[in-house]
Amino acid sequence: MAKQVVTRTYTASIRNQPRVSDDLDALGFAASKLWNVGRWTCSRIWDKIDHIPNHNELTAYLKTHERYDDLHSQSSQRVLQELAEAFNGWYGKRRNGDARANPPGYRKHGDEHPRSTVTFKQKGFKLDTQYNRVRLSQGSNLKEYWSDFILCKFQTRPDVDLSAVENVQQVKAVWSGDEWELHFVCKVEIEVSESPGEQTVGIDLGINNFAALAYEDGHSELYPLNCLKQDDYYFSKRLARCDDSNSERATRLNQKKSRRRTHYFHTLSKHIVQRCVEEDVGTIVVGDLSGIREDDEKGESKNWGSHGNLDLHSWAFDRFTELLTYKAEMEGIAVEEVSERDTSKSCSCCDRTRDANRVERGLYVCDECGTTANADVNGAENIRQKVSPSSPSLSVNRSNGWLAQPSTFLFDKETGALAPQEQVTS
Q: What percent of the chain has pLDDT over 70?
């Protein structure tokens, strides 16, 4: 065992939610407004001098803007830093010849500003671990109408003790879709195992199969989205019967749905990491889904159909990858994120890229080399090869074999665990 300092994010519920929700709403709306002001400023500078301002330049431009003082100065800096990073990411893709890449958009839902995440750095919060309270500073503009700070009472998981954490670096107020929650970003020292081996596995996250895995030795696995789809359908029906979406009953249903989804993500990430240990995997390569909600050509939200949208927008992509990463770190396994561009269109055996090769949702047939594969597994193998290309002989042996006949694991509600499809009874 070796010791390693890593970053951990611990999620906490807010126990006095009704008392602080209006204040947090005001901060979330303010963060969106500042983002939009910064977005307009970046666009104007780009149009005039073909230059994308960096974080320091953008902060200097907007430090005197009235919206900047809606938040604590460090919180405003973080909003503009995220915007600058998003613009630089877009410009990097454009410079590399990706003509379909779009710049970051404005944060609006119709005429309304959504609740953006607000980040508080060390000068912007005061943590009281004895009574599980945290004071979040507000900007000077909001202090005129509200108090100087928001006092949130929080509850972490039983196994998380923030008083034992040496350094809490940031506190984030995050809108979960139903209510506000707190994310504590900490530096902690952990004991990690030696790497299980030098093998690699690629993971493709998708709509029908939540995860498809392609291992370096050629075999593959699927993890269908069965339980989350059933939960979406069940809770949507129950919530539709509620007279008020903000009622106590609706709140309990949303909280239960959220807990079940979180349990699934924990169970799946733990299972995948255990499988990697068994298969001597030292590196997990996962597709980066940061732009999956946006249409490359139109710059708008993609329309995946009524059922697709239901499934897609209930995901927590970052949450799952975060859980997978820290569980993998404990076992000495590295996690790398790579672009998913064209991984669903390219043949993992001969590299030919053609839209028509994906003849059905779950079937990929290459008209060049004759490879027949499960489409999601083919994508996972392409993702894996971005970090560890296969030898030609292995690619030949893989075609029409394990890629087309993956093992399937389902979530068994009776046991609360993942098991081979033939063993699941629920």
A: 83
